[in-house]
Amino acid sequence: MKQIRILFSLCITLITTVSFSQNPLNFGSNIRTADPSAHVWKDGRVYIYASHDEECQEDFWMKDWHVFSSDDLINWTDHGACLSVDEISWADNYAWAPDCAYKNGKYYFCFPAGTGHKDRVNPEKSTKWMGIGIAVSDSPTGPFVDHIGSPLWTKPYANDPCLFIDDDGTPYLYIPGYRVYELTDDMKSVKGDFLKMDMGGYEPKMEGPWIFKRAGKYYFTMPEGNRVLTYYMADSPTGPWIYQGVIMEGEHESNNHHSIVEYEGQWILFYHRWIDTGSACENRKRQRQICAEYLFFNDDGTIQPVARTDEGLARNLKK
Predict the structure, then answer these.
(1) Is 87 a catalytic residue?
(2) Is 293 a catalytic residue?
(3) 53, 99, 146, 207: which is the annotated catalytic residue?
(4) Could you tell me the residue ranges of all domains in the chain?
(5) 86 Cβ contact list (under 8 Å, min separation 6)
(6) Which residues pair with 267 in a beta bridge?
(7) CA 134, 138, 144, 145 torsion: positive or negative?
(8) Which one is catalytic: 35, 146, 160, 293?
(9) What is the dihedral of CA 17, 22, 26, 27, to 10 degrees?
(10) pLDDT digits (tens, 9 = 90+) for 131-141
(11) What is the pTM of this model?
(12) Kind and range of the H or E element at 9?
């Protein structure tokens, strides 16, 4: 009888865990994903454009990007790879953090890719180079086709793009280093040189900027020091920006990468965690996997700090 009670208790625990633990997100496939770029398109679904960590890959040598979508934030569809470096004539590696935008009746996939190798022992011997490309499709899930046949520019080195379309239709492309370019209406080139934005005198090392607009205010969010998610606010998409502080603290001394989107009236933070998966890989015991949390704003528009949870989007809203 005691054994039956113990078994019943274990079953209840398992059911509770399955029902209420949603991080990392279950995309219905076993691939490792990172760098989530989330968008809600005209069909009302949430789409996540993600980089793809191959099992035991060498030093972030990544080869394709995947798309996932959901209409309830619980059940996700893996639409497969939307673009691969094999389909890009000017790069053969480093399929890193992408973004996507809808304009002119088309979906534009903004991606970093590169060539060469990074020598971490002797940096002066590194040959690694990365640029930003634009691909296009009639569908939010692709397949995407290189829109230009070359990177938007070759210098400076660039990665982690954020493609933001303002309310007036103006396309802006943000990259690390607090730089922004305005793109042409056909999304094939940049208008002039980049703008180095005014960040109010505070410009820490960063990567993966994410820009969004809410209630007339623009938000420039980023992994500060590549780990802690922080943000600025402004009245214009190009600043000047005012630093506001931390959204999410760092974890494991590992990088974070994120996006923020509104879905059915609730704002959501998508990000990745480095999780011990029991992998046999000697070079990668922790693997990156995409997670999500609810995000809340104060009355003045500032963002309330967000904690990582196992429940993620399955937890009850109390705020």
Answers:
(1) no
(2) no
(3) 207
(4) 2-314
(5) 63, 92
(6) 262, 295
(7) negative
(8) 35
(9) 160
(10) 999 999 999 99
(11) 0.91
(12) helix 2-20
